[in-house]
Amino acid sequence: MRTFLYLLLVVCFSVYSQTDSTKLTFVAYWEVGDSYNFKISKSKKEWRDQELIKNDSSQYIANFKVLEATATSYTIQWSYTDQIVDTYQKKALQLFDNNETLLELFKKMNFQKVIYQTDEFGEIKSILNSEKASKSTQFILAEMLNSFKNRTTEKIEELNYLFEPIFKLYSNSETVQNLILKEISNLHFLLGYEIDIQSPIEYEQEFSNIINDKPLYADAKLSFKEIDFENNSCIIEENIHLKEESFKEAIKDFLLSMKQETTSELINKSIFDVHEKNEYQLYFNPGIPYQILKKRTLNLQVDSLDVLQEEIFKLELISNL
User: Fold this and answer.
1) How far from 38 is each of 79, 99, 124, 305, CA to CA, in Å?
2) What is the pTM of this model?
3) With 60 as the cut, is the pLDDT of residue 235 above it?
4) Is the dihedral of CA 192, 194, 197, 201 positive or negative?
5) Phi then psi for 196, rounded to 5 degrees?
6) What is the pLDDT of residue 270?
7) 110-119 core/surface letters (b: 16 or more CB in 10 A; e: else)
8) CB neighbourhood size of 209 (10 A)
9) Which residue among 204, 244, 264, 305 has its CA within the 20 to 30 Å range from the CA of 252?
């Protein structure tokens, strides 16, 4: 009888393991106090008519810390080192005339920390301190406009026209949240999803559009490069190609909102090619990446203008505190 029960358990376990191994579930297994340091590297290059005109890079440390955990949510703090915050402030001060007012804003607004909330699976739901960020962004834009006006006595009305849609854009709390979460969302890639690992997944991806409320669409393909069940890790490749028509419509809307004359014929004849090739190396338990590498290229050909941009984003887990 015991032998029969043992064999039955072995068979059941084998069947369960085989079925389970065709899918991978990405769920956050975090506890209060969990803390991870990440090194983030960014680079951006731009060529115009095949001549390199921009070559920027930056590197800094960021920390992910679980502040609170309940049955239905996690509260997370994402914070930066003083170095990256100081660099941002120095660059901002170079753009403005009223530096005393801006410095006062920096004292009130903590650019170092983002507090946000996820559901129980780790999917981002909301930023808890986004209201300050939204008001501060609008204030900085107003100071930028005043600085431009002080530097030129001409085209004041044109400047007002140009900034009007930008002010409207950044008064939208959802837009501000999307901008803040652009970097953070990489850590939450696939959390809350169960993925079939047997074959590549092809789908249409939707991106938020900072120009208006119309989303941008892309063709995407997701595939597993490597899975290690023993160490609870995997490597995922993602290829994204933005649909050209979707991008062209966004450009047209942007130019119209900026009161700029444009012709649909010129935009339709142009080439707008945006492609992303990403690799995510993740621990699916506890639900934390140990390396993310993203490369985005943009090729723009409008009339006689030929522009190529390349952006690289790299995130590396350097310590688990």
Assistant:
1) 10, 32, 19, 38
2) 0.75
3) yes
4) negative
5) -75, 125
6) 80
7) ebeebbbbbe
8) 19
9) 204
Tell me how far CA of residue 134 lies from CA of 167, 170, 173, 274, 305, in angstroms: 11, 7, 6, 28, 35
pLDDT tens digits for 66-102?
999 999 999 999 988 755 544 545 555 554 444 555 4
Q: What is the pLDDT of residue 14?
A: 35
Sole residue written with tokens 């090619």: 273
Identify the residue with better confidence: 91 or 289. Answer: 289
**Exposed / middle / buried, residue 20 (Cβ in 10 Å: 0-12, 13-18, 19+):** exposed
pLDDT tens digits for 259-269? 555 566 777 77
- Angle at which helix 99-108 crosses helix 82-93, to 10 degrees, equals 150
Burial 307-321 (b: 16+ CB within 10 A, else e): ebbbbebbbebeeee
| Contact by Cβ (8 Å): 290, 282 | yes
Percent pLDDT > 70 in the chain is 63
Q: What b/e sequence results for 241-259 when a residue is b if at least 16 CB atoms lie within 10 Å of its CB, and e otherwise? A: ebbeebbbbbbbebeebbe
- Give kind and range of the element (H or E) at residue 168: helix 156-170
Pairing mode of beta strands 113-119, 73-80: antiparallel
Residue pair 145/159 in contact (Cβ under 8 Å)? The answer is yes
CB contact set of 154 (below 8 Å; sequence gap of 6+):
none
Amino acid at 34: D
Taking CA atoms, 80 is separated from 34, 88, 91, 104, 255, in Å, by: 16, 11, 17, 20, 35
Rounded Cα distance between 167 and 146, Å, is 13
CA geometry: angle 87, 60, 237, nearest 5 deg: 130
In the block, tokens 């130019």 appear at: 255
For the chain, how many residues are written?
A: 321
Count of H-run helices and E-run strands, the chain: 8, 13
